Amino acid sequence: MSDIAFTREEKEALVAKLQRYFDNELNVELGQFDGEFLLDFISKEMGASFYNKGVNDARAVVASRLQIIDEELYAIEKVL
User: Fold this and answer.
1) What total of structural domains would you count in the chain?
2) How far apart are CA 27 and CA 40, in angstroms?
3) Does 32 have pLDDT greater than 60?
4) Is 38 within the bounds of a domain?
5) pTM score > 0.85 for this model?
């Protein structure tokens, strides 16, 4: 799996969120370059974990829906 690629707009929005967090929670000013560097680090080193969690959550939703469909199919079976 390759690194997560963000559009310029997405990256700017994510860096802005990091900057606000650092400012509000840590009272640290995070510059644009440092914010982009941190975002790149997070996406490279931790992105796969977040991605895999999302895939697993989606898999659980699909499995749940398939179970419902399967039950409905059994309900409409004809008795021989």
Assistant:
1) 1
2) 22
3) yes
4) yes
5) no
